[in-house]
Design a protein that fits this description.
Radius of gyration: 18 Å
CATH topology of the largest domain: Rossmann fold
Number of strands: 8
Strand content: 5-15%
CATH class of the largest domain: Alpha Beta
Number of helices: 10
Mean pLDDT: 89
Structural class: alpha/beta
Shape: elongated
Low-confidence stretches: 1-8, 213-230
Number of domains: 2
Largest sheet: 6 strands, parallel
């Protein structure tokens, strides 16, 4: 059980802070990306099954590209998802409404273990932050989900100028928190962005792959569970056990 700040994690250096990825780690789209897309599109006369849109979203996301999480980047992605399904591209019709919907609390679900674990960690003195590839909607979204007060910092790629796994975003976060790289544990569901990025930057890392998640694609990274420094977990509650 966590009893105070300064925890070991298979290292002589103590962990003084934990950063968390957002999508797929703390929250997931609800009921799914495709459901939200379908709901908004139908208001504009475009009727497509949610599962088809989920499939198209995953396919569009996995196309190799530089994605900077800007509004324009999202508009381009949504246009790809709806390509051939509507007479006009969403960027010219309903994209603005769709973009706004994903800043609303009812479009997301907080995983069941999140509040309990974060509150226990924070109460024990552990410093907590979010470190996520996201856009300017995340800060408002976390506030609406009543999560923002649990974190001392919210590091967002679109604001910082780099996206995970770029080591510069991890370096900047550690400098802003006033901690050495090895004193921070990063928890996330993407092997490439969260785990490889954190480890390459000298941080500790814990890979999270949630089981029995609902709602279609939670995050667009297709993470696979792998052992990392002996720790790979299926819930945040397991982090309490390994600290």
């Amino acid at each position: 059980m966590v009893t105070g700040p300064g925890y070991s994690f298979n290292s002589t250096m103590k962990i003084h802070a934990i950063t968390f990825d957002a999508g797929g780690t703390l929250i997931e789209p609800w009921p799914s990306v495709g459901h939200v897309y379908a709901e908004v599109a139908e208001q504009y006369g475009v009727r497509v099954e949610a599962e088809e849109l989920n499939r198209r979203f995953v396919a569009a996301w996995h196309v190799e590209r530089e994605f900077d999480y800007s509004r324009d980047a999202w508009a381009g992605l949504v246009d790809e998802v709806f390509s051939g399904l509507s007479s006009e591209l969403p960027s010219r019709t309903f994209f603005d409404e769709l973009y706004g919907r994903f800043a609303e609390a009812d479009t997301w679900r907080v995983f069941d273990d999140v509040r309990t674990v974060l509150e226990e960690l924070k109460g024990s003195g552990m410093r907590l932050a979010v470190l996520s590839n996201w856009d300017d909607r995340l800060r408002l979204l976390l506030k609406r989900l009543k999560l923002s007060g649990l974190f001392e910092e919210i590091f967002i790629s679109a604001e910082m100028g780099w996206t995970k796994p770029d080591g510069r975003i991890f370096q900047a976060a550690s400098e802003m928190m006033g901690l050495a790289a090895g004193e921070i544990l990063h928890v996330g569901d993407s092997r490439r962005e969260d785990v490889d990025g954190a480890l390459a930057a000298g941080w500790r890392a814990c890979h999270l792959e949630r089981e029995n998640c609902s709602g279609g694609p939670r995050t667009p990274n297709g993470a696979q569970r792998v052992p990392l420094q002996g720790h790979s977990v299926t819930s945040l509650s397991e982090i309490m056990e390994i600290l």
